[in-house]
């Protein structure tokens, strides 16, 4: 149970900040060097002859029973950490994840609340840790030891689950994900030993810390109000716990402009996050004194919403987080001083296929 909890908490951080090139679909079987080229973030569109500045609209999804739509979500993560003491230790971590998510609208009620099935059909992961490379590709990686390393990805493959969502993107519920939880238990070797009372805890974490943050990167929530160019709104996110700090993020959005793509109106939305940081800066643990500096963080992104089709056409977001602290470690030779600096970067690119 502990192992399941740890990996769910780890993956949740990727989606906690700023829920923020139109090219043919790329095959996940492409060579690693080619797959590591991130798609262009430019959206090429032709401007309309009419003046779009005064056009009013809503950012509403147009879900219809029986409709299907698919997305590719690409996540690039990197961490560089240097620890200075008697010597300097540098750790570098890079990861690229590509997910293909398939959606089918099962029903839409009179209040425009849709029941949608989501099936994650392909995942590709490339990892480089201090120049040691490893990879995972769904349907190709079969070695049990490798599958256990990538349990959080393998458990999602071809295990559909359901979403209840409003036409403005508010996720009301995530359900029918029993196949995912059972697959996680099977891969972790805990299927026959997990306690009955632990299952609801695990299922709550899968639902609220894995599936909801993942889906909210695709089916984003928008305001219900009528908007125009330069309209603004904001959304307060759940606090993110990082080391000794709790970071309260607020996402700020502005409709930057309207464009025309294949006769459809596209709302180009700019996003930026601000942060309020709480936490004790000095703690002592097992005789080691730590002094933390305030984290330095920035996040921004763009969303391209197709008003006429009622779907996000594309989005991209980038988050940078710098963490620094000083250590005083008792030793037979006296107090030893150490310093650590860590830079974490995450980039998400979403594309409608």
Structural class: alpha+beta
Count of domains: 1
Alpha plus pi helix count: 6
Number of strands: 15
Strand proportion, as a percent range, falls in over 45%
H-E string:
HHEEEEHHEEHHEEEEEEEEE
Give helix % range: 10-25%
Distance between the termini: 37 Å
> How many strands, which pairing sense, and closed or not: the largest β-sheet?
15 strands, antiparallel
* Overall pLDDT score: 85
Give me the Rg, rounded: 22 Å
What spatial form do the alpha-carbon principal axes imply?
globular
Q: Low-confidence segments, ≥5 residues, pLDDT <50?
A: 1-41
Explain how this protein is built.
This protein is of the alpha+beta class and 353 residues long. It has one domain. The chain has helices spanning 2-14, 32-35, 144-149, 151-154, 178-188, 199-216; strands spanning 68-84, 88-108, 114-129, 132-137, 161-165, 171-175, 232-236, 240-242, 245-261, 264-279, 282-285, 288-292, 296-306, 311-331, 334-352. It has a 15-stranded antiparallel sheet that branches.
Features:
single chain; 353 residues; alpha+beta; 15-stranded antiparallel sheet; 15 strands; 16% helix
Write the layout of secondary structure elements.
Blueprint (H helix, E strand, L loop, with lengths): L1 H13 L17 H4 L32 E17 L3 E21 L5 E16 L2 E6 L6 H6 L1 H4 L6 E5 L5 E5 L2 H11 L10 H18 L15 E5 L3 E3 L2 E17 L2 E16 L2 E4 L2 E5 L3 E11 L4 E21 L2 E19 L1
């Amino acid at each position: 149970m502990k192992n399941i909890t740890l990996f769910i908490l780890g993956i949740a951080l990727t989606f906690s900040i700023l829920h923020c090139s139109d090219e043919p679909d790329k095959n996940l079987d492409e060579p690693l060097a080619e797959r590591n080229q991130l798609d262009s973030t430019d959206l090429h569109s032709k401007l309309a002859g009419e003046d779009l500045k005064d056009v009013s609209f809503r950012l509403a999804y147009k879900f219809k029973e029986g409709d299907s739509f698919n997305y590719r979500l690409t996540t690039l993560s990197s961490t560089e950490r240097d620890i200075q003491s008697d010597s300097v230790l540098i750790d570098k971590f890079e990861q690229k994840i590509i997910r293909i998510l398939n959606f089918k609208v099962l029903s839409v009620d009179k209040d425009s609340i849709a029941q949608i099935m989501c099936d994650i059909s392909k995942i590709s992961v490339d990892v480089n840790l201090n120049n040691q490379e490893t990879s995972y590709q769904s349907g190709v990686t079969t070695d049990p030891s490798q599958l256990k390393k990538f349990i959080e990805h393998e458990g999602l493959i071809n295990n559909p689950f359901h979403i209840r969502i409003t036409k403005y993107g508010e996720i009301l519920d995530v359900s029918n994900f029993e196949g995912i939880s059972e697959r996680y238990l099977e891969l972790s070797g805990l299927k026959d030993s997990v306690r009955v009372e632990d299952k609801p805890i695990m299922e709550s974490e899968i639902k609220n810390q894995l599936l909801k943050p993942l889906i909210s990167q695709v089916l984003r929530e928008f305001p219900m109000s009528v908007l125009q160019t330069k309209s603004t709104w904001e959304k307060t996110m759940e606090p993110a716990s990082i080391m000794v700090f709790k970071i309260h993020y607020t996402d700020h959005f502005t409709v930057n402009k309207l464009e025309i793509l294949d006769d459809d109106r596209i709302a180009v939305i700019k996003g930026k996050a601000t942060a309020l940081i709480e936490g004790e800066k000095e703690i002592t643990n097992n005789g080691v004194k730590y002094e933390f500096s305030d984290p330095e963080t920035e996040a921004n992104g763009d969303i391209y919403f197709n008003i006429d089709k009622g779907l996000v056409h594309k989005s991209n977001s980038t988050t940078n987080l710098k963490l620094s602290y000083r250590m005083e470690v008792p030793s037979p030779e006296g107090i030893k001083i150490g310093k650590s600096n860590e830079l974490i970067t995450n980039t998400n690119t979403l594309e409608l296929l």
